[in-house]
Amino acid sequence: MKTPCEIVVWYVLPTIRREIAKEMVDTYHMKQADVGRIFGVTDAAISQYLKKKRGGSTLIEESRHYPEFLEEVKRSAKLIVEEKSDMSVEMCRICKFIKTVGLLAEIYTETTHLPAPSCAWGKDEDSCIVPQ
Q: Which of 29, 46, 105, 115 has its CB 3.0 to 4.6 Å from that of 131, i.e. a possible disulfide?
């Protein structure tokens, strides 16, 4: 059985990275190498994000929460570019948003065919209780 954290690693974080990279390049006209330095990856990895060869999840992209998700990404990219925040803080912030709106729970249920534990909903962060 997968844990909600594994779902985040497989589906959520790559999508966040891809969308932030896209926003930084398209909106702020940053070079791929500069985005790569911020992310701690090569410019080739950023190129893969931009070409949709890396990152992305149809479970997120087809969700009713996707427009809200993109707004959070835009906010994060702006804060990172303006050096008012950093990548790790913004990744955590968006991940918390995904929990709060129930998107992580939806992805968990879709991929495991099991009810999502409370921590996937952003509740009971210190324990992960599976519904009976």
A: 115
